[in-house]
Amino acid sequence: MGLITKEMKTINSEFLTSDSFGIPYIINGKSMEIGLKIWKENILDEPYYFILPNRNDVKKAIDNSLNSENIRSLSIYNRIEEIIEISNKIERYEENISRLISLETGKSLELSREEVVAAEKIMENSWALISNSDMISRDGPISFVSDSNNIVNQVKIENGISIVFPSFTSPFFTTISSTIRSLISGLPVVIKPSSYAMASSLSAISLFSDSPLINDISFIPIRGLTNMDLFDNDDFTYYFYGKKINYKTLLKLLSGKFISNCTGRVSVILCNLPENVDLVSNQIAKLSLKHSGQACGSISWLISLESIKDEIVESIVDRFSQSLVGNPLEGKEVGPLKNKEVADRSTKLINDAIYKGSSLLTGGLTNGRYIEPTLIDNVTKNSEILWTDIEAPVLASTSVSSCSEAISIAKMMSGASSVIVFGSDNIINKLGKTKKGIVIKGSNNIENILNSICYISGDPINELPRSSFPGKLAFDESLIIY
Fold it and tell me: For residues 65 and 60, what is the distance between their CA atoms, to the nearest angstrom?
């Protein structure tokens, strides 16, 4: 049965079905054997079971099991103290949870451990969710600059139920962060995990098993969109990948095309060479391979002046060629993509760029859901890879004749939500005025900055809040980070 079952047993055996073959359907922390049993394979072909509830089960959980009166019988002080106490469990299970995340998502153990530690930190600092304390910087301090005023909003306690949709790329963290935000505000929680990260989300829920808060959490793996009309109700509050949204937006996102963690990737503009070329080249290469290019903070594009490009590109190529592809539990840096469809799409983007005149400097080979670290140079402006999100360990390099040309390209890139600029403050400010998103001044610290903003719950563009809890936009246009 493989490693998924082994790791789940270590985390909490109560959350396994009686035949020890996988994941149960959970209502209020109690496993149920009813429903349709489906054979599901995770990203590394480790199979496990989960129970899919029928429509009546979903309705029963909402109508009979979950209501805001129960959670609000605990004072907000007691809720937060419970959450802080639960955070103490994470350290005990950190290694097992990290292995589980790696097995499901394909990212390295190092990144999985960072995700678990980030979840522990946000629980330990639960008071900051209502006190407007700074929880944004994980490795801070980071200076946030904006023309807009930061306005502190009071936490509004809403009626109804919170429905949480964790991300595939950070399933444990987004389950924890959305769930505790909901519970603190007095909302019971229904969790519908990503089908690619079911066990990782369940491991987050299992931490609550010895707490009275478990009575306000239901775990319901709903198949597709067949039951979504059940949730078309003003009483429901939605957290999609940690971002608070309304039903219409949720339905649009789920019905259309959306990327794996709802953020887009990062582009780098080189108008000047970094002070330490080797260090920054290594960071760009490492971040290009982060979670096999599927995560927030993954660098996918390099836009540079022709005169300064070669030195940094050569260094990245050397780093890519030394990266091992395979199972992350075996120490491989580049794991599989979340499904074969994403791999096939990425291969088409690579081939399209080469057909239109780009140069393949390294990588490009695919094997099922695995893609070698790939660097494509001299990408032409009519190549699709320049204008669409890349969910793979692929870096597209484009040369420009001026920084103005680099800015014009960056502001039109729909796939890039964050831009790192090695250049003058004047260039940074010009880009900030033309592109909504995050603009980061290039430095030797770009890895820490990206890690910090990507551990905000959900989309860093839309989740840099005026106050830490409501999740409203603090900035009308771009956010510039120096």
Answer: 7
pTM to 2 decimals?
0.81
Kindly report, residue by residue over 114-125, the tens digit of the pLDDT.
889 888 988 988
Domains of the chain, first to last:
3-255 (3.40.605.10), 265-481 (3.40.309.10)
Q: How confident is the model at residue 277 (pLDDT cuts 50, 70, 90)?
A: very high
Residues forming beta bridges with residue 147, ordered by sequence position:
none
Q: Are strands 265-270 and 416-422 parallel, antiparallel or unpaired?
A: parallel
**What's the pLDDT tens digit per position in 213-258?**
988 888 876 655 455 666 777 778 888 776 777 888 777 776 655 4
Residues 193, 169: contact at Cβ < 8 Å? Answer: no
Q: Does residue 32 sit in helix, strand or coil?
A: strand
How far is the C-alpha of 167 from the C-alpha of 174, rounded, in Å? 6
Token duo for residue 356: 């239109």
Distances 139 to 205, 288, 448 between C-alpha atoms, Å? 26, 20, 6
177 contacts: CB under 8 Å, gap ≥ 6:
119, 122, 242, 457
Structure tokens at 239: 């957290």
Please name every residue paired with 219 in a beta bridge, in sequence order, or none if there are none.
Answer: 26, 191
